[in-house]
Design a protein that fits this description.
Elements: E1 32-36, H1 40-51, E2 55-59, H2 65-72, E3 77-79, E4 93-96, H3 101-113, E5 117-120, E6 133-137, E7 140-144, H4 151-162, H5 168-184, H6 188-199, H7 203-226
Length: 236
């Protein structure tokens, strides 16, 4: 018998265009994130970091009007100086977002020497991570990335998906999250059955037709019918 591996079983090296990124969501609540630059690109970075609860420090002598307002409201810290490597101290993440390629390159080099992750606005190949285009539906977040190849195309895909992703998905997620601790209290075999049954309700579709209250009634009925006493919600 020929025991040589079949062609489809052999690991092939990735092509030059193959995306080998490791997708991850970061918890940045209270962590120091340094953004070097004060223009439009830096402003976008700052806003996304603030949405994640980060402690943002901006390094720039000149600030976009939006950054000026955020600084005036004590939402961000600003060091009004030209970049120096000392500015990276204590940073969890670094963003090189100036309009000077050489300065951005120096920021990346300094960050790498300190073992810090850096995103370089004008050099994807010099970046350790990329900021994806995102879609949010309450607790649900979808991220789209081209690995820095074309942020414009990532935004285009996001716009396509936004047209088909209903806000009801986020509302349905709230109910699924409510059921999760109850389902996890069951046996492993039972958990799989319950997840399949709950998701088969297609709560997002029910919300679109009957509204949230109608969907939540159906959800409550499902819980009463399928959960054991160990995991039952008590309805007063």
């Amino acid at each position: 018998m020929d025991k040589r591996p079949k062609s489809e079983d052999v690991m092939h090296p990735p092509s030059a265009t193959e995306n080998r990124l490791y997708p991850a969501f970061l918890t940045l609540e209270g962590k120091v994130c340094v953004v070097v630059g004060g223009g439009h690109v830096a402003t976008r970075k700052v806003r996304s970091l603030l949405a994640a609860g980060a402690h943002v420090v901006v390094i720039s002598e000149v600030l976009h009007a939006d950054l000026q307002m955020l600084h005036a409201d004590n939402v961000i810290d600003v060091i009004p100086e030209n970049y120096a490597r000392e500015h990276l101290m204590a940073a969890s993440l670094v963003f090189a977002a100036t309009n000077d390629h050489e300065v951005n390159h120096q920021i990346a080099q300094d960050a790498h020497e300190r073992g810090m992750w850096v995103n370089v606005a004008d050099n994807p190949d010099g970046s350790d991570f990329y900021v994806p285009a995102t879609i949010r539906r309450q607790g649900l977040t979808l991220a789209i990335s081209t690995g820095g190849g074309s942020p414009a195309f990532a935004r285009y895909v996001r716009e396509l998906l936004e047209q088909s992703l209903s806000d009801a998905l986020g509302q349905a997620l709230e109910m699924v999250m409510e059921a999760r601790p109850l389902i996890l209290a069951e046996t492993k075999e039972r958990q799989a059955q319950l997840w399949n049954g709950l998701l088969a309700l297609h709560l997002e579709r029910v919300i679109e037709i009957q509204g949230y209250e109608g969907a939540h009634r159906l959800f409550g009925q499902w819980l009463e019918q399928h959960m054991t006493e160990k995991g039952r919600i008590i309805h007063e």
